[in-house]
Amino acid sequence: MTEHSTRPRPAPRPHPVEALIVVDAQAAFVTGREAVPESARVLDRARDLIARARAAGALVVQLQNDGPPGAVDEPHTPGWELHLPVAPGPLETVVRKTDDDGFADTRLGALLADAGVRALAVCGVLSEMCVSATARTALANGFRVVLPHDAHATYDIPAAHGISGMVPAAMSSRAAEWALGDEVEIVARAADVPFTGAPRPPGRIRPPAAETAPGAAP
Questions:
Q1: Is residue 45 within 8 Å of 123, Cβ to Cβ?
Q2: Measured between alpha carbons, how far is residue 140 from residues 120, 122, 134, 180, 183 in Å?
Q3: Gap between the Cα atoms of 142 and 127, Å rounded
Q4: Is 94:64 a contact under the CB 8 Å cutoff?
């Protein structure tokens, strides 16, 4: 009888992806006292991913959530602003959204299709909400999805009487990964995500300043 090792096997290095989706790297969630606990790590990994995606000629899309009135991410408030700069040019843009899912009522799907993207990486916040919802729809739409474990984060889940004690943020993030199922490619480190150029580089992507809220008149 052969004894099986309980030691987890290292995940294979993924094949290159043609796009990077940075989810809600907005001031309210990644800076100041109300930032997610691992905001410094997530920002560091996101900067690395963006730099390498740019160098490879991959499509870079930053999602920006439009919160309701009074929310920390209400449009045009300090907390709504993107923390990471967007480079001008045809391969980088901002897509505003009002739903957890970055594909819902936005031009994200059209951008990816127009660029011929078939494989993408996702990073940002919050793990179990907008990161998960966007990755799940990407999978449902037939994209290969790579999710680097060290490039997304969330908040601790508060204790709930009669249900559980406080759930640490790291545990919630790991559970969010697991809940995406077998098709998502989880890698331990953002540094292990390789990029390649978008198959059909867009001739023109609307600059971030021209982006309108979902459902608004262009």
A1: yes
A2: 13, 15, 10, 11, 10
A3: 21
A4: yes
Residues 128/138, Cβ–Cβ less than 8 Å: no
pLDDT digits (tens, 9 = 90+) for 37-83: 999 999 999 999 999 999 999 999 999 999 999 999 999 999 999 99
- 113-127 pLDDT, tens digit each: 999 999 999 999 999
Return the bridge partners of 122, or none: 21
Each residue of 136-166: pLDDT tens digit?
999 999 999 999 999 999 998 888 999 999 8
Q: Catalytic site residues?
A: 130
- CA separation, residue 205 to residues 73, 88, 194, 201 (Å): 24, 9, 23, 10
- Of residues 99, 92, 78, the one with CA closest to residue 211: 92
H-only helix segments in 103-163: 108-114, 132-140
CB–CB of 47/87 below 8 Å? no
Q: Give the three-class secondary structure for 87.
A: coil
- Cis previous bond, 126, omega within 30: yes
Q: Of 36, 33, 39, which Cα lies nearest the Cα of 157?
A: 36
Give which of 133, 119, 169 is closest to 149, Cα–Cα: 169
Q: What is the pTM of this model?
A: 0.88
